[in-house]
Amino acid sequence: MAFTPLDEVAMGNITGQAGVTIELETRLNIDRFIYTDEGSLEINDIFIGGANRTDMFSEMNINLNGDANDRLDNIRVNIDIARDGDAIINLLPISFNAVDFRMSTGAWNLTGTGGNTTILDNFKVDMLIGSGTIRVDTATDTVRFLTDIAIDDMDFDIPFLAMGIRDLQLTGANYDLSAPQPLRLFANVDLEIFKGANAAGVDVLAIEMASFEADLRIGGVLIGGTSIGSVAMDNLAITDTSLRIYGH
Q1: CA-to-CA distance for 203 and 198, rounded, in angstroms?
Q2: Is the pTM of this model over 0.85?
Q3: Residue 85: left (phi > 0), alpha (psi -120 to 50), or beta?
């Protein structure tokens, strides 16, 4: 076997090529997730995968999901390093389609010496993801996370309050149910994640969101197992949101 050394021109051509592409298909199950401080929070029966439905946002009368299955698929991940050193991770559908996503869990239990309390149960969310981008900026040491989401159906129970939520939908603020348009379906999420200072001047995990706008509809609010009616929020706007997260 013989090896031919690369000259400078050939090396330059290799360096100048595009980045890495990953096509993803997966399904995730976790029997139990436990976070322990003095007591514990247990989340049971976690599932992450495809929604396995062809009727999401049925008012559009189109199949947004392609072949329905319980796998998180139709995802292409493009990874590039820009000339200035920024890492750019771009998540796109493989076909011109949205990515269908489901997450469900069983009981969320608080446990300790005083006993057990179920704070959440029967959680399920079916949603569509239009796109996503993660950019690590070397000049500012900031991670910027952008995605477009639309929730078709979210259900959960809050047993210790005898409450439940059914048929929660979240869409873009300009989405009109009577004249639905796919490009207006999604609500945009834009987060910046970085090292920032808390009130005491200590470096902590910082998360900031300049604005978030969406329409929110809840088909049924249950009290004691009986619906007391529905709720709608038109043009919900959350602005100038800043979080500082640290231990105590």
Answers
A1: 7
A2: yes
A3: left
